[in-house]
C-alpha cells in the first residue's frame, strides 16, 4: 500500500481545478462563496470542473452560512441534481442549536446519496461533544472522512485533539479518515505525519495572494513536496 498522503484543495472554478491538479492535488473540494465559508457550487461549475480535470471531486452540500441545515428538501434536491450531473463524492455536516448532530438532516441527505462517499466537514469543530457526534454518525453509509482542525480556532488550537483522535483510529466512531484543514501550515505537517495522519486540506494556503486570486500550482506543489 502506498504511503502517499492525500492532498485536497478547495476549488472555486475550472481554472482553480486545473492549477491544483497541475500542482499535485489528489482531490478537490468544490464550493462557491467563500465569504460564507463555502456553499454548494452551481451545477454548471461542477460540470466545467469535471470536464477540466480527472482527479476526484467532493462537492459541498451547504446552502446557508453556519452549520444549521436550513431547508432540507432543497439540500436533497441539490444532491439529486448534482448526482444527475455525475457527482459521486460529497461534503456535508449539520448541527442543531445545542451543538449536537442534526441526524434527521444528515440522514435525509445521505439517503439521497445512495452510498456515495462523503466527508463530514468542520461542523465537527463546533460540536458540543465530538465523541458523541462521531459515534452517532458511525454507521451512516458512505461516511469515510472527517474534515477537522481539532478546534473551531484552527489547527494551532486543535492539535492535541487531532493527535488524540488519531491515536484512537479503528475504534467505533474513529474509523473514518482524518482530513486535517483549517489554519493548517507546512509547519504542522511533521507532528501530524508522525501521528499517522495522512490526509490534508488547504484553501487559502493554495492562494498566496488571497481568495480573489486563483489557485497557484506552485503553492500546491510546495505542499505536495512537503508531503512526499
Question: How would you sum up this structure, described in words?
Answer:
- With 228 residues, the chain is of the alpha/beta class.
- 36% of the residues lie in helices and 16% in strands.
- The protein contains 8 helices and 8 strands; from the N terminus they run βαβαβαβαβαβαβαβα.
- Strands 7-6-5-4-3-2-1-8 form an 8-stranded parallel β-sheet, covered by helices on one side.
- Helix 1 runs parallel beside helix 2, helix 1 runs parallel beside helix 8 and helix 3 packs parallel to helix 4.
- The mean pLDDT is 96.
In short:
The protein is of the alpha/beta class and 228 residues long.
Layout of strands and helices, then pairs:
Elements: E1 6-11, H1 14-23, E2 27-30, H2 43-52, E3 57-60, H3 72-85, E4 89-92, H4 103-113, E5 117-120, H5 130-137, E6 143-148, H6 155-167, E7 177-180, H7 189-194, E8 199-202, H8 217-226
Parallel strand pairs: 1-2, 1-8, 2-3, 3-4, 4-5, 5-6, 6-7
Helix pairs in contact: 1-2, 1-8, 3-4
Which keywords apply here?
228 residues, 8 strands, globular, eight-stranded parallel β-sheet, single chain, alpha/beta, 8 helices
From the alpha carbons, calculate the radius of gyration and give it in angstroms: 16 Å
Number of strands: 8
User: Kindly state the mean pLDDT as a whole number?
Assistant: 96
Low-confidence stretches: none
What would the principal axes of the Cα set say about the shape? globular
Question: Could you give the order of the helices and strands?
Answer: EHEHEHEHEHEHEHEH
Strand order of the largest sheet: 7-6-5-4-3-2-1-8
**Cα distance spanning the termini:** 15 Å
The major β-sheet equals: 8 strands, parallel
Number of helices: 8
What is the beta-strand fraction? 15-25%
Broad structural category: alpha/beta
Q: What's the helical proportion of residues? A: 25-40%
Amino acid at each position: 500500500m502506498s504511503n502517499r498522503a492525500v492532498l485536497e484543495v478547495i476549488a472555486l472554478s475550472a481554472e482553480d481545478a486545473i492549477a491544483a491538479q497541475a500542482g499535485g492535488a489528489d482531490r478537490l473540494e468544490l464550493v462557491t462563496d467563500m465569504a460564507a465559508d463555502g456553499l454548494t457550487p452551481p451545477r454548471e461549475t461542477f460540470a466545467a470542473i469535471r470536464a477540466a480535470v480527472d482527479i476526484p471531486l467532493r462537492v459541498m452540500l451547504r446552502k446557508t452560512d453556519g452549520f444549521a441545515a436550513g431547508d432540507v428538501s432543497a439540500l436533497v434536491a441539490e444532491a439529486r441534481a448534482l448526482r444527475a450531473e455525475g457527482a459521486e463524492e460529497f461534503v456535508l455536516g449539520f448541527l442543531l442549536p445545542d451543538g449536537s448532530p442534526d441526524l434527521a438532516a444528515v440522514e435525509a441527505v445521505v439517503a439521497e446519496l445512495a452510498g456515495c462517499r462523503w466527508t463530514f466537514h468542520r461542523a465537527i469543530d463546533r460540536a458540543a461533544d465530538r465523541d458523541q457526534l462521531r459515534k452517532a454518525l458511525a454507521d451512516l453509509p458512505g461516511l469515510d472522512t472527517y474534515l477537522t482542525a481539532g478546534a473551531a480556532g484552527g489547527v494551532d488550537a486543535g492539535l492535541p485533539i487531532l493527535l488524540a483522535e488519531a491515536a484512537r483510529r479503528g475504534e467505533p466512531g474513529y474509523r473514518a479518515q482524518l482530513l486535517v484543514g483549517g489554519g493548517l501550515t507546512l509547519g504542522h505537517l511533521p507532528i501530524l505525519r508522525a501521528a499517522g495522519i495522512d490526509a490534508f486540506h488547504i484553501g487559502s494556503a493554495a492562494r498566496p495572494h488571497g481568495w480573489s486570486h486563483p489557485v497557484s500550482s506552485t503553492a500546491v506543489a510546495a505542499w505536495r513536496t512537503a508531503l512526499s
